[in-house]
């Protein structure tokens, strides 16, 4: 007997790019979703939301490509009770109207935070060993350990790591750093107390004293170009800047000048704009590891997001409290 046969099957729809369901959900999970829900036959996107019959939908399972859920769209979904979002930030689709109607919104942000934190951890440890810097010079000069003068720090014992933003990802990075002999500090204007594994400092002190600075702040007006020429000038020669958050946090021109001079190093997974135009000088910048916004969930990591969303759907169908609920007030200061 089907284990879901006695459960009322709410009407639901996937709200995401059409190619995503096969990447998010295993065959078994998709089978179970079909058993638990009366699923709309095709994913709902911004382009077809105006044509689809949405009146009886009680649940949306969202992902990248989810349509904007404004008053116009929501008026066509009078039965909607919840949006379970498989990815991280809900800013792309969530509106005040969505929360005003009392519709529950959940996010997979905690699960998407893990691969970003893993990427950051790897970048921090590789930066401490001067891997990116040495690899480029070694390839070019073919000179073994090609330092003209050995740097003051070269390794991860006692490495001073500055985390800008005690966000979910920032805190996850601090957790992942725990087994290593490094010295983490953090700056966050919303968090002034010590958190497990790191102590709070001012932004100026963090920039002046860190060997590696990793950005995990949201893109809001207050953080636009927070790492500008003045901030970069505070960093000691040889410091590595890592950005896996949002490109707008960094003044690219100011950073480019520091990279060209050889004073600083950087690892950028996000840029402004993102993606970069083909003629961007960052592609030719020295002392820079540039990756195409890959630190978030990719490939088989998407299944983690799909599995987490499935667990939330199971709770929704069983009328149990949802776990990843998003509060509307965090939208003003979240990524």
UniProtKB/TrEMBL annotation:
This is Hydroxyacid dehydrogenase. PANTHER family: 2-HYDROXYACID DEHYDROGENASE YGL185C-RELATED, 2-HYDROXYACID DEHYDROGENASE-RELATED. Residues 137-295 form the D-isomer specific 2-hydroxyacid dehydrogenase NAD-binding domain. It comes from Arthrobacter gyeryongensis. InterPro entries: D-isomer_2-hydroxyacid_DH, D-isomer_DH_CS, D-isomer_DH_NAD-bd, NAD(P)-bd_dom_sf. Keywords: NAD, Oxidoreductase. Pfam families: 2-Hacid_dh_C. PROSITE patterns: D_2_HYDROXYACID_DH_2.
């Amino acid at each position: 007997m089907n284990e879901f046969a006695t459960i009322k099957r709410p009407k639901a729809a996937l709200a995401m790019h059409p190619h995503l369901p096969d990447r998010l959900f295993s065959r078994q999970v998709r089978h179970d979703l079909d058993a638990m829900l009366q699923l709309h036959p095709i994913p709902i996107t911004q382009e077809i939301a105006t044509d689809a019959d949405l009146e009886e939908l009680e649940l949306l399972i969202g992902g990248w490509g989810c349509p904007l859920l404004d008053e116009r769209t929501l008026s066509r979904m009078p039965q909607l009770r919840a949006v379970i979002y498989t990815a991280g930030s809900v800013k792309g689709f969530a509106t005040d109207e969505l929360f005003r109607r009392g519709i529950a919104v959940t996010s997979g942000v905690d699960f998407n935070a893990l691969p970003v934190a893993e990427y950051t951890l790897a970048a921090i440890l590789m930066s401490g060993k001067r891997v990116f810097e040495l690899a480029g010079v070694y390839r070019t000069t073919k000179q073994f350990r090609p330092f003209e003068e050995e740097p003051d720090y070269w390794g991860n014992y006692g490495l001073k790591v500055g985390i800008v933003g005690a966000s979910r990802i920032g805190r996850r990075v601090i957790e992942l750093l725990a087994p290593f002999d490094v010295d983490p500090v953090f700056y966050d204007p919303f968090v002034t107390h010590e958190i497990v594994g790191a102590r709070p400092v001012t932004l100026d002190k963090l920039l002046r004293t860190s060997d590696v600075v990793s950005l995990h702040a949201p893109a809001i007006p207050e953080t636009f170009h927070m790492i500008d020429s003045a901030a970069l000038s505070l960093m000691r020669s040889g410091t590595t800047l890592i950005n896996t958050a949002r490109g707008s946090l960094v003044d690219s021109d100011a950073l480019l000048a520091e990279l060209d001079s050889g004073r600083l190093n950087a690892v950028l997974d996000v840029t402004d704009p993102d993606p970069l135009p083909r003629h961007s000088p960052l592609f030719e910048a020295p002392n820079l590891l540039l990756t195409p916004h890959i630190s978030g969930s990719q490939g088989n990591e998407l299944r983690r997001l799909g599995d987490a969303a499935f667990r939330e759907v199971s709770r929704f169908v069983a009328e149990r409290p949802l776990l990843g609920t998003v509060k509307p007030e965090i939208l003003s200061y979240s990524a």
